Structure prediction request, 152 residues.
Amino acid sequence: MQYLHTMVRVRDLEKSLAFYCGALGLVETSRYDNEGGRFSLIFLAAPDDLDRAKKDKAPLVELTYNWPDENGKTEQFSEPSRNFGHLAYRVENIYETCEKLQAAGVEILRPPRDGHMAFIRSPDQISVELLQAGDALPPVEPWKSMPNQGSW
Prediction:
């Protein structure tokens, strides 16, 4: 058995790409537009996984976007389920990553107070965990005093 991808359904493709690619730094590896089914599949990989993603088609995040109908309405889906859990990425420097994300307008829900773990959320309310590569970094301000925001 081999892990391939995690699918995330998105409401606004441009906002989602701005989050996953622009802010988080994932790279689009392929895209499939299905005219008949009126949907797009966009596959993304972490930069350090790009060679594996191109060679093995894994590990990937698949964004599924259902196109608006003839009246301009998009598929309605309920609030995000807490059953899903989260996506997780290892980062080289959790403080620098969170600073970059915060500058891009991404809310840090669970700050990296411990120098090891943080949580953010996509425009579609998908939780994303960020984990420090290697040992935890020493706790520093403003992160160590920053409170949690909402749930993740």
About this structure: The chain has three helices and eight strands. The chain has two domains: 5-66, 86-145. The two ends are 30 Å apart (CA to CA).
